[in-house]
Amino acid sequence: MISYLRTFLPWIAFAVLSTNGEARIGALAGFALAVVLLLMDRRKGRAWDALVIEASSAVFFAGLALAAFVIAPAPFGEYGPAVSVGWLAVTAWGSLAIRRPFTLGIARGMTPPEVQASPLFYRVNATITAVWAVAFTLNAVGLAVLLALAPHATIAIIAVKICGFALPALFTVRYPKIVRARYAA
């Protein structure tokens, strides 16, 4: 669970720092964290396929930070948090569309080679990635609706942001255990 928190740290920083519509600080923090984490992981020898979210984060925050300092008012206005989670949804759905679920590379680092070769390994990771994709999509839509209808409902906005990451993270931790138990039975 901690590794997922670390992976999404740039997004969490952006979400916290841009809650009141200030994209510049949040985008810069997200970009800096994404680059630092990406460099640290590459230095540790992690393969690129295990760093899909990290690489996607660096690209998104680089673009957003640049736009936030060049375009006035800030790009996406109050909808920055919804757009950022929408980017994650596109990343997750895209990885499924090309049949390379973003969780595959991460899971390969935690499982023995004989498990990685099984079709079940792919299906489990496709399912986990699909849950993340749905969660990101619902999170983006929920944030967009809240920001449109109740932009000052900070507690509700923060709750949607937290649930949008915590629930799929819990599923990610539990689902492989459930599948292993079923397979063993």
UniProtKB/TrEMBL annotation:
<keyword id="KW-0472">Membrane</keyword>
<feature type="transmembrane region" description="Helical">
    <location>
        <begin position="79"/>
        <end position="99"/>
    </location>
</feature>
<feature type="transmembrane region" description="Helical">
    <location>
        <begin position="153"/>
        <end position="173"/>
    </location>
</feature>
<feature type="transmembrane region" description="Helical">
    <location>
        <begin position="120"/>
        <end position="147"/>
    </location>
</feature>
<keyword id="KW-1133">Transmembrane helix</keyword>
<feature type="transmembrane region" description="Helical">
    <location>
        <begin position="12"/>
        <end position="39"/>
    </location>
</feature>
<keyword id="KW-0812">Transmembrane</keyword>
<feature type="transmembrane region" description="Helical">
    <location>
        <begin position="51"/>
        <end position="73"/>
    </location>
</feature>
<protein>
    <recommendedName>
        <fullName>DUF3159 domain-containing protein</fullName>
    </recommendedName>
</protein>
